[in-house]
Fold this sequence. Notes:
Layout: E1 17-26, E2 32-36, E3 44-46, H1 48-54, E4 61-64, E5 70-73, H2 75-81, H3 97-100
Antiparallel strand pairs: 1-2, 1-4, 2-3, 4-5
Amino acid sequence: MASNPEMPCYVCHKKVRALKIARMDQTSGSAKKLTPTDPNFPPFTVDRHFVNRHKPQPGGYFVVYKDGYQSFSPAQAFEDGYTLCTDDCEGSDPKDSSFTQPGPHNIKGPGDEGKASRMEPPTFPGDGQIDLVGL
Length: 135
């Protein structure tokens, strides 16, 4: 049996905002309330589409990319691929709340046609920017 060639190797070079998840609680329906490990950030809710697609778990990371896309990363994968930034996430717009604050994502599921694809993100103490220090 012939062996397949190895897939190409890639190195991650993206800057993201992230919060490590301490706990998850059920809210109405199949939405979940995520509580960050960093006490400077209050719990926030992700909707059923986020839960069904990303299957977040305590110990992993809620991740927001520069384009506003929100995702979940298991702790091992995140910690192996990212190092805490010491700058201000160069290239990000600090006033862009989709990059600095957790909130419902913009994925629509079956039956969601005609519904708004994004809800207002929660507000945080201070200027609302996610501070990655302490994660």
